[in-house]
UniProtKB/TrEMBL annotation:
Protein name: P-loop containing nucleoside triphosphate hydrolase protein
InterPro entries noted in UniProt: P-loop_NTPase, Sulfotransfer_4
Pfam families: Sulfotransfer_4 (PF17784)
Signal peptide: none
Segments forming a coiled coil: none
Superkingdom in the source lineage: Eukaryota
Length: 298
């Protein structure tokens, strides 16, 4: 995409490349129930090929949630996941993380991947005892740079500015709290992005070890999958025939960087609309330039 799309609207090419960013289903999951069985829990952390795995599950016939993408096409998803965050990490006893809860959040899919579902591995494993579990592992040193670039850097913004984003942009209002309260403060136990960087690798290793530990007495439920292994181990594990297409290999770094460009422009357009109403357009113009010049691949 080009900078002119900030001023003149997104091209058909950009819209086709990132359809989730241009849809708002506006579905309140609190009103939902399970309509298909939960069959596959892909609990690897973000930046372990979650987009490729989600595409693979879909090709195998599983309606699939890639949580990070889904919250952009249905920002209200963030609200129900924030309730789960409060229950697990903040001591809120009003919500029980069992099948009845997850059937609302994930009742429309048979497989899930990426955050926020991967923050609730033990709970999902207990809620769905018949579901198979896939854990994609990468070497921690290889995983970290990608994770840091994609997720931690976004929290380098001052807290006051993150709150401003939530007020100024509808998607951020629902999604951002799940990232900084759920992932950063909850899953990684970090108060800020500096501490998040220090803890990231250790928490990543503990996460993978925890999934293994939970399933140590049910080894038949777990597949530890290595990226690049192709269809055979996955299809054998899930009891599916091997498709007549190559295993999806999404260039997640390139796709993520391009998506972030589009997402930033969308936010800035939203800011501009809101700030213009209060005489703040000049401030938004400065922010737009700084974000554009410092964003990935700028």
């Amino acid at each position: 995409m080009s900078l002119k799309e900030f001023f003149f609207g997104f091209s058909d090419e950009t819209r086709a490349a990132f359809p989730n960013l241009f849809i708002n289903h506006n579905i309140d999951r609190h009103q939902c129930r399970r309509v298909v069985p939960m069959e596959v829990l892909s609990l690897g952390m973000g930046r372990t090929g979650t987009t490729s795995m989600a595409a693979a599950f879909a090709l195998l016939g599983f309606p699939t949630s890639h949580g990070g993408a889904d919250m952009h096409s249905n920002p209200l998803d963030g609200d129900i996941w924030l309730e789960a965050v409060k229950a697990k990490y903040q001591g809120d006893t009003s919500v029980k993380l069992d099948a009845s809860f997850f059937d609302k959040a994930l009742g429309h899919v048979s497989a899930c991947a990426d955050y926020p579902s991967n923050m609730f591995g033990p709970e999902l494993i207990a809620a769905y005892p018949n579901a198979k579990v896939v854990l994609v592992e990468r070497d921690a040193d290889a995983w970290y740079p990608s994770f840091e670039r994609a997720l931690i850097r976004g929290q380098d913004l001052p807290a006051w500015f993150r709150h401003f984003l939530e007020l100024a942009d509808n998607t951020q209002k629902h999604v951002q709290p799940v990232i900084w309260r759920g992932m950063m403060q909850g899953q990684f136990g970090a108060k800020d992005s500096i501490e998040w960087r220090k803890k990231a690798k250790d928490v990543y290793k503990r996460h993978n070890a925890e999934i293994r530990e939970v399933l140590k007495d049910q080894p038949e439920r777990l597949l530890v999958y290595r990226l690049g292994s192709g269809w055979e181990p996955l299809c054998e594990f899930l009891g599916k025939p091997i498709p007549d297409v190559d295993f999806p290999r999404v260039n997640e770094k390139a796709q993520h960087d391009a998506m972030i460009k589009v997402f930033i422009v969308q936010q800035l357009q939203s800011f501009l609309l809101n700030m213009t109403k209060t005489g703040g357009a000049a401030l938004v113009a400065v922010i737009a330039w700084r974000w554009w010049s410092q964003s990935p691949s700028a």
